[in-house]
Specification:
Length: 238
């Protein structure tokens, strides 16, 4: 990874602070609403356990927490993010949807979790881990806090394998998305940065091996929508 990109990742929450007010609307528009389908996929991959305690890392404006709250298997969801402004947008959403009994959103760093060992049943991260300055450390932290048999579900943007789809993808992600995103968010290069983080981040087997190296078992990855996103799954050894 280039040193300048890694330096920006250390402070990526500042970018998200600046684009928080337009983040949700732009997400829906730029992904043509597919992001909703990707987040809902998490519900189909929950562990078959009841009374679960879930943590959503890089929770942003709380969209994953809202989706997880639909599950009767989950008792509580705590979202953690480094961006105060993203959390503020999320807190309003949680209140408007009457989910404050089940969902809390707090400031927190995904590479240094405040939870005790073996206390969380499910950890999710959607479109967040490629922004972490140290994803390996975060994966080890997640492994530490999960209960034996607990599960990690990570959704991340990835590069499609099919040549033709990849060409269309590059045109959209390198030119269309950054232009519209930067203009509408009013940020000089937030969406150019976001695209760079996707192209720079390991995907498929390469990222799965990071999950394995952090101590997870029963790992798998499933490309979603031609591989524009990928869902990774891992479990903590019993
Ligand atoms: C692209 S947003 C994803 C938000 C949300 N998960 C979603 O699905 O829309 C990435 C988020 O990662 C957060 N982030 C970056 N580094 C972080 C870290 N070390 N710990 C916690 N959150 C972090 C940013 O502040 C930002 O809100």
């Amino acid at each position: 990874m280039s040193t300048s990109l890694n330096a920006r990742k250390k402070e990526s929450y500042k970018i998200f602070d600046e684009i928080a007010s337009t983040y949700d609307g732009l997400n829906k528009f730029l992904s043509l609403g597919i992001d909703i389908y990707w987040r809902n996929k998490l519900l189909k991959n929950l562990p078959s356990k009841t009374n679960m305690k879930a943590v959503d890392l890089a929770c942003g404006t709380g969209d994953v927490a809202v989706v997880l709250a639909k599950s009767k298997l989950i008792d509580s969801i705590e979202g953690l993010d480094l961006s105060k402004e993203m959390i503020n947008v999320g807190l309003k959403k949680i209140k408007d949807k009457n989910l404050t009994d089940k969902v809390s959103l707090n400031l927190g760093d995904a590479t240094c979790l405040p939870h005790n060992d073996g206390t969380i049943d499910l950890v999710t991260i959607s479109f967040g881990i490629r922004n972490f300055s140290n994803p390996d450390l975060s994966l080890r932290e997640i492994n530490r806090v999960l209960t034996p048999g607990g599960r990690i579900l990570i959704t991340e943007l990835t590069i499609p394998q099919n040549f033709l789809i990849r060409m269309v993808y590059f045109f959209y992600f390198r030119f269309v998305l950054p232009t519209i995103g930067n203009i509408v968010s009013g940020h000089r290069d937030a969406y150019t940065y976001l695209n760079k983080t996707v192209e720079d981040f390991p995907c498929g087997e390469k990222f799965e091996s990071k999950i394995i190296n952090a101590g997870f078992i029963n790992t798998s990855f499933t490309p979603l929508t031609f591989g524009i996103a990928t869902l990774y799954i891992g479990e903590k050894a019993p």
